[in-house]
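SUBJECT: A protein chain and its fold
Encoding: whole-number codes for local backbone shapes
Chain under study, with its fold:
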Amino acid sequence: MAPLLNGFPNGASGHLPNDPTLVTLRFSDIPPQIDIPVRGLEAEEAVEVNLEELLDDPTELCTLLEQEGVGRQYWMIIALA
């Protein structure tokens, strides 16, 4: 017997609900861009990163995040984008 979620099978063996109202909202809270705070002469400087058009090579972005010592929430938002 397959485990049920809201009366529907959990997707095992290709059984998915056919109800179009059950659209997943997963990752819907990821913004299209994010401002990463950077250390500078002014109090609040930031670099805006477009999360809809990320580069294939993340080396430069990872270097920026490491050098600025940003919090893990920035890393997670970028990883989820």
